[in-house]
Amino acid sequence: MMEPSQNRILVVDEQTHLCFPTLDYTAELFQLIQTNRAFLEQYLPWIPNMQKEWHAQRFLKEARMMNKGKQRLTTLIIHQSELAGAVSLVHLDLPNKRAEMGYWLKEDLQGQGIMTRSCSRLIRYAFTGLHLNRVEMRMIASNNSSKKIPLRLGFELEGILKEYQISKAGHFENVEVYGLLKKDWNGTK
């Protein structure tokens, strides 16, 4: 895996790019989470733990450390020169050439294709830069908006993990697993 640097970006389109986390984004990340807290808490179990700016700084430090250690590859989505969200290869398993993808985007940018294009760009890097063979996405079965992304990108629904996690409301929820193999990847989406 190429060593992430502060200057390195992955261009998504004319208005959007992915960059590696730096501590320079601490205040902006914290403000983005504060502004979008109610929306993000529906799907991201770690959001309630982001109560202070130093929590955002810790998140960025951990992301940098995990990137450097090649356990994860976190990128920040910069849209029109502002932090908009993140897309990551979590559970990066280089020996077995696979990773799980996770992502989130602030509420007012939903439905514009930004996340689909950002995921596509990171998938391209996963298959061509990291030489992975498999990328998967897991999401709460009730998250209908998010489920559209893997389907647009050629992923297949491989299974349902029944009552896999507990929701914010305290009830069990199913999680769907979507997978994409390098040999089935279109490369142009």
Write up this protein.
- This protein has about 190 residues and is of the alpha+beta class.
- It has a domain at about 10-135: Gcn5-related N-acetyltransferase (GNAT) (Aminopeptidase, 3-Layer(aba) Sandwich).
- It is about 30% helix and about 35% strand.
- The protein has four helices and eight strands.
- It has an eight-stranded mixed β-sheet, sandwiched between helices.
- Strand 4 (about 80-95) and strand 5 (about 100-105) form a beta hairpin.
- Helix 1 (about 25-40) crosses helix 2.
- The protein is globular.
- Mean pLDDT is about 90; it is low at about 1-5.
N-C termini distance:
23 Å
Q: CATH class of one domain, please?
A: Alpha Beta
Largest sheet: 8 strands, mixed
Please write the string of helix (H) and strand (E) elements: EEHHEEEHEHEE
CATH topology of one domain: Aminopeptidase
Q: Which regions are unreliable across 5 or more consecutive residues at pLDDT < 50? A: 1-6
The average pLDDT score comes to 89
CATH architecture designation of one domain: 3-Layer(aba) Sandwich
Strand content: 25-35%
**In one word, what is the shape?**
globular
| Spatial ordering of strands, largest sheet | 1-2-3-4-5-6-8-7
The beta-strand count equals 8
Number of helices: 4
CATH homologous superfamily (4th level) name of one domain:
Gcn5-related N-acetyltransferase (GNAT)
Structural class: alpha+beta
- The radius of gyration is 16 Å
Helix content: 25-40%
